[in-house]
Amino acid sequence: MNDQNFDNKNTSFSYLESRPLHIGASVPRLDAYEKVTGKEKYAADYYGENLVWAGVKRAGVPHAVLRGIDFSSAVKVPGIVRVLTHEDITGSNRQGVIRKDQPVLVNDKARHCGDAIALVLADNKESLKEALDLIVCDFEPLPGVFDSEQGLRNGAALVHEDNADGNRLLKGEIKTGSGSDAYKECDVIVEACFQTQSQEHAYLETEAGWARLLANGKLEIVCSTQTPFRDRMEVAEALGLDPTLVRIIAPYPGGAFGGKDGVTVQTLLGLAALHSGGRPVKMWWNREESFVSGTKRHAALMYYQLGAKADGTLHFLDVRLYFDTGPYDHLGGVVLTLALEHAGGPYRIPNAQLTGWAVYTNNPIGGAFRGFGVTQVTAAVEQVMDMLAQKLGMDPVKLRLKNATKRGDRSCVGKTMVCSNGLVECLETLSKHDLWKQADDWKSSAGPFKRRGVGIAAAMQGSGYGPVVPDYANAKVELTSDGKIRVYCGVVDMGQGNASTNLQIAGSILGQESGQMELVLPDTDRTLPSGSASASRCTYTFGNALIGAAETLKQRILQRAADLFMASGPHEMALIPGSVRHLPTGREVPLFRLVKFFQDSERIAVHHFRAPVAADNIGVSPEIKLHGLPHTLFSFGACLAAVEVDELTGAAEVKRFLAVSDCGKVLNPQIYQQQIHGGIAQGLGYALSEKLEVEKGRILTTGFSTYIIPTASDVPEIDSIAVEIYEPTGPFGLKGVGEIATNGPLPAVANAVADALGIRVFESPLTAERILEAFASNGRQESSI
Amino acid sequence: MRQVSLPRTLGELWAVLQRQPHSAVYAGGTDLFVKIRDGQLNPESLVCLERLTELQGVQDNGDELFIGAATTHSKLIVAESVREHLRVLVKAASVLGSPPIRHMGTIGGNIVTASPAGDTLPALYVLSAEVEIRHCEGSKRIPINEFIIGPGTVDLAKGEILAGVWLRKHQGWNLSHYEKIGRRKAQACAIASMAAVLELTETGKVKRARLAWGSVGPTVITSEGVENALIGEQLSLEVLKNAGTMLDKAISPIYDIRAGADYRRMVSKAMLLRLNDYACGTTY
What we know:
The complex is a heterodimer of chains A (785) and B (284).
Chain A: E1 11-12, H1 32-36, E2 52-58, E3 64-70, E4 80-84, E5 94-95, E6 102-103, E7 109-110, E8 116-122, H2 125-134, E9 136-141, H3 148-151, E10 168-176, E11 188-196, E12 199-200, E13 208-213, E14 219-223, H4 228-239, E15 246-249, H5 266-274, E16 281-284, H6 287-293, E17 296-297, E18 299-308, E19 314-326, H7 332-341, E20 351-360, E21 366-367, H8 374-392, H9 396-403, H10 423-432, H11 434-437, H12 439-444, E22 450-463, E23 472-479, E24 485-488, H13 498-510, E25 517-520, H14 538-564, E26 573-576, E27 579-582, E28 587-590, H15 591-594, E29 604-610, H16 622-626, E30 633-646, E31 652-662, H17 669-688, E32 694-695, E33 698-699, E34 717-722, H18 745-757, H19 768-778
Parallel strand pairs in A: 2-16, 14-15, 17-21, 19-20, 24-25, 31-34
Antiparallel strand pairs in A: 1-25, 2-8, 3-7, 3-9, 4-8, 5-6, 10-20, 11-18, 12-17, 13-14, 13-16, 18-19, 22-30, 23-24, 23-29, 26-27, 27-28, 30-31, 32-33
Helix pairs in contact in A: 4-5, 7-8, 8-18, 13-14, 17-18
Chain B: E1 3-5, H1 10-19, E2 24-26, H2 32-38, E3 45-48, E4 58-61, E5 64-68, H3 73-76, H4 80-85, H5 87-94, H6 99-104, H7 107-113, H8 120-126, E6 130-135, E7 138-143, H9 144-147, E8 148-150, E9 153-154, E10 161-168, E11 175-181, E12 192-200, E13 206-214, E14 221-222, H10 224-230, H11 237-245, H12 247-250, H13 261-273, H14 276-279
Parallel strand pairs in B: 1-3, 2-3
Antiparallel strand pairs in B: 4-5, 5-10, 6-7, 6-10, 8-9, 11-12, 12-13, 13-14
């Protein structure tokens, strides 16, 4: 068993047509062929001989004291290997990133329906299911907290009795200028309350993994994760193991979007492997389990007041945010902190009072999701911007342009924006686009029972971890013994395409085509610690490290070749595909030959990069700083939705969508567009249809027949334009593109619906039912029907 | 493990059904397998009808068409005779599920599942479809509205199967309309739906009308009140609005995870107004 190799293999691309890997070229994704032909091995594809299936008994109740677990019938089911409970865990039995408050297996009480109570190991799936059904939990029900505002009131049931702040996980307060007092100096004030819903990540591949305990005591876990290096520490601590004995192997996840930013199956699999008698263990949540137990985008309640001078100069912002973080921190405090930082959008607002609470409830767990708190507040601020424009009688693009931050301006939290900033270019490009210029013609040509509206939104998205938590990467590049270039990726590629981009970066620097390149996916034993695949940071941080490693290796290769050819120096040498060439004479030495003149220790180059952090002290508490505020690098965007609303049904259909984004220089236009398109599709689902129905902590929509994600027919033709402002600190001028596109669709669509109907729907998603209700109660009598 | 039988002749089918009377009978399985996975159903064995040639395809029998129960929606919507004579059925089946569902799911399955949201059902009601029931000793024909008793319930005894539907070819409708309101454009269960066939005179007066609504009652809802309010009238918003008032008594929508009862009530009437598009000369 143990001699089987379950590593992430060294992927070579020599079987594909070899392609040059120039920076800026639309090189087809090097992972595409294996993925579309089904050859790529995901975490869910690991089996092996003598396999044990592991499964979890879930609480099924939102809040209850666990008095006992009766698994006497379950262990009698033929094919059951073990039933494990919290008593079998010798470590801390706690997981989490900032506050470690989530049990691996519940030891005191259930805090949401998806809590894990017992872990069952079985020879096959059928026995596993039967045994899980036979486990009886003795629960003493407790009153629950199902609403974040309620959770903060005196007398609310407590989710964590040991938390000194009651149900408050984190409160953040930021005041700039004269704060709330500035409202007196405004000529116009608009006020609104927005409610945004929980959103499911809905990845194709549900949470899955495979683990085994080797004879030497090493625990190997293959899993679908964004965070292999953090997982190693979390698993070790929760299970009481030496972290160096835990190895995490991270194949490409089949989608993640933040839902795999942190432990899902990992610790449970580790625990199972410790008790499976050396047999490999597999766990694979089904869709319902993924819904019930996985994290969600935080539902948010947001109170906004935005004030301006008569000429449209923004002057004052007052915001109160309530984020429902569910029963565990996960990354809830960090999500709230990003929301606070972005609460004023990408605008100059000199006076702000921003307050936010991340609140424990017995609802599903709130966690990381593409946009990470920014999506919620962008929905709010971009709608109050439109309300303000209307009140001022100003064009919504002009109002945004008037207040857009430029490099060197301060954001609403008082942070000086030092990075490249293409917001003005984004807005100007949008305003010159036909979809904006010809909006009136398009709107006036609506068919019977249709009304059309055009809405815009701008956004920014901070990237990286903020001022305290080190945002670093360590790249490793190898000249293999057969003369190939192997790139060891320390950051997961969950589908964004960064693994392929890494090859493009290294190939470009080392003058190699795809056929000469090899790739190793993240593995705590083979690749170097490089942080999480999150926060729009992957290619920015790892790319910078990779440039250093590739340049080092390049110099070493050129120098060795120059010495070999007795050239006057490496400046006479050039790397060409498969070889090094002496330019003055045209003589070449193939890399597979040159490498024979290398010792093993020279074939590998490594480089460390740590992202710059904000230098300014903006006076926030150390706790808020720890949670990531302020950021120093931002991507920007402006988008437009052309929406047609059906007066009879209320259905809003997005007919066209335009996104103009500043994510720095684009290394691969195809991969860039895929990120923008995907972000928009996910944002449109959030805007229009994705509605997680939760009743007293229970999710009623646990599958895709009731939880409605967009299909190909629901996503319109998208125009996407890159405003490529060079970012001096980025690899080849790049900034992150992973999240920015997902923030604009909800406010742009809501603004378009308001433009079409003259009424605003303050609660998302904007389902046909909500729109029709608002329309019927407001404007029906005035309409043509 | 469950036994799955795939009879190729009716003789084999009757034998299997006699041997295993508690089998679940299916064709495409797009409804049944979802229920089995959910644990709503746990049949001892399965009998699949899709290999029975008698239940496949569309037959032209002079004045009538026979659509075999195991005909998939994708085959149904490309059948020439169906396209020529039963346009409302084509419109309804074209928005059922998604391409993969239409490739697997069958018209017989849609009928027997008897969901109030079944997309072909309102169309079959307005076309006065009759279903053919077969058993080992013979067959019978009954109107579809008598066959479907309630949500998920049909008048089918043990040992009987739905063999197909009979539809008259020349029904004289010159307006065929189907609208489905779902939560997205494809792969969506109807929140409410409406099938309408009308015969309009050259001057646009309604000579005859048949209308049926889905998802707003335990089974498909028809309303003579609405139909009578249209007959003899020139299609107009006033007439359609007035006809809609007759609908209130007929429908009994529920609140569920997809929509509220009030919304269903509102859109049931509102969908009627869409017929005004035809009066305006919009071609569909």
